[in-house]
User: Fold this.
Amino acid sequence: MNVHITIYGDYVCPFCYVGDEMIKQLGEEYDLTVEWRGYQIHKEGKSSRYMEPGYVDRKWNILRQLAAEME
Assistant:
């Protein structure tokens, strides 16, 4: 059975990249059709340096954990 997945992602979002890698892994196990749709996620067109203190560090820690789990 083929499963159709529509993914909305921002090209500057590191979590979207991690999600892409996870979908590729799922595609090796399941019959998937993946449709990518662009979606502007970043906050009001501002880069992460304008977000609240500690935001970037917290997000990088999450990304490191996800990467370790994918190895």
Observations:
- The two ends are 28 Å apart (CA to CA).
- Strands lie at 3-9, 32-38.
- The mean pLDDT is 79.
